Amino acid sequence: MRQIERVILLVLRLALGGVFLWAAYVKLWPPASGPQAFADSIKGFKLLPPEGDHLVTLATFAVPWVEGLAGAVLVLGLWSRAAALVLLLNLLAFIAAIVWVLERGISTKCGCFGKFSPFCPEQITTCNIVQNAVLGGVALVIVLRGGGLLSLDREASRRARRASKRDGELAVLEAK
Amino acid sequence: MAVGRPGAQPGTQPGARRGAAAGVIAKALTLLLLGVGVGAYHSIRTPITLRMTQVEPTTVPLPTSGSGSSVGAPAGEPPAGEANAQAPPTVAGGTEATPSGGADPGPGGTASLVLGEYIDLDTARQLWEHQLAEFIDARHLDEYVSGHITRAQWSDPRTVRSTYPEWANYMDPESSIIVIYCEGGTCDASQIAGQQLQAYGFKRVHIMREGFLAWKAAGLAVSVGQPGADEPAEPEHAGQGG
């Protein structure tokens, strides 16, 4: 892998991880209103059955925690491919949910970034699909190519290779 | 990044690739489960109130009986203003005529009301006067007993999630207009009851924003007593309760 590619991967990794860390933060903070607003958004999608209150409550907290954990390990460069895979699956699920909403003509807020709407209007439109597709594309690149420079994965891999090489040399010496 | 066996060169051998892919999937599942687990724990620790799904505003035409000054006051009722001017704030079960306001004249001069998720006191009053809506008290029983909007049904906020209210059996989920109220201001009981009624299939659920205290303060019809037994409140009780 060329150095320029590693640098690009680093930038993409930090950007994607940062976006999802922020998305998780604004969904959970402040505690009094953040989760409440996100729960309202989930209910607005009308995806879950009316009697599924517990699922709405679980999703209200599970989605931001998954996003936050994946975002944090992505920023650190630990388990980069796995974290990007989790986010990619997340984004695919979001796209499916948005298509569902748009097909049924439901007017609701995205809630993707809490009370903020940095890339698209507050109400769900096709813009949200494009936004998630772009983020999903970034995630896919990281899944396929890894985390690039300054990642703990890379450091762990380097150490493993060094240890392996040392073991090999020791084995050769012992054989002699 | 090399994932899999130490020393393996990723992308060089099919076996190593498969191992790396399996490792990535295993780590992704670990992250997913960890996030869901922490989220589940957080959801237990931090209670939230599930609110009503967004209600699309609907228009309700008001009956055109009665004079212009008492929009739709039911026939046989006292003229607008009379009952409200000096009357005690409670009446016996029936309707109470009060000055109208807030109704939008629709096409052809027909008055109508626009109902969103929240409705104001005046709109609620008009719905109540014309008996166009079922009023639901979402407060605790003792509060209901000591004073509630006349003809309002009571719905236990603690059991409405698990128990289909008896009064709902006589209503059409598609067309019945429901107005829920609690104490007023930021109380969540109306939202809890409203979202559950929506879950039961009721489409036209609205919340009276100002709540019971404002209704009572406006001198509108209030009764005391157990659910299903609206009795006129004694004058000395009129200022209490709620």
Give a count of the beta strands of chain B, DSSP E runs of length 2 or more. Answer: 11
The percent range for helix content of chain A is over 70%
Beta-strand percent range of chain B: 15-25%
End-to-end separation of chain B in angstroms reads: 66 Å
- Sheet bearing the most strands of chain B, described? 5 strands, parallel
Largest β sheet strand count, sense and barrel closure of chain A = none
The gross shape of chain A turns out to be elongated
Main sheet: strand order of chain B? 4-9-8-5-7
What is the assembly state of the chains in this entry?
heterodimer
The total strand number of chain A stands at 0
Summed up, the helix count of chain A is 6
Order of helices and strands of chain B: HEHEEEHEHEEEHEHEE
The largest inter-chain interface, given as chain pair and residues per side, is: A-B, 49 and 35 residues
Calculate the mean pLDDT score of chain B and round it: 73
Would you tell me the structural class of the helices and strands of chain B? alpha/beta
Cα-based radius of gyration of chain A, to the nearest Å: 20 Å
Query: What's the end-to-end separation of chain A, in Å?
Result: 36 Å
Written account of the structure:
The complex is a heterodimer of chains A (176) and B (242). With 176 residues, chain A is mainly α. Chain A is built from six helices and no strands. In chain A, helix 2 crosses helix 3, helix 3 runs antiparallel to helix 4 and helix 4 packs antiparallel against helix 5. The longest helix of chain A has 26 residues, at 3-28. Chain B is elongated and about 85 Å long. In chain B, the strands form three sheets. In chain B, strands 4-9-8-5-7 form a five-stranded parallel beta sheet. Chain B has a three-stranded antiparallel beta sheet with strand order 1-3-2, with no helix packed on it. Chain B is of the alpha/beta class and 242 residues long. Helix content of chain B is 29%, strand content 15%. In chain B, a hairpin with a 5-residue loop joins strand 2 and strand 3. Chain B is built from six helices and eleven strands. Chain A binds chain B through residues 28, 31, 35-36, 39-40, 43-44, 46, 50-51, 53, 56-58, 60-70, 73, 79-83, 85-86, 89, 107-108, 143, 146-147, 151, 153-154, 157, 160-161, 163-165, and chain B through 1-3, 6-7, 24-28, 30-32, 34-36, 38-40, 42-43, 46, 48-51, 53-54, 56, 161, 195, 198-201.
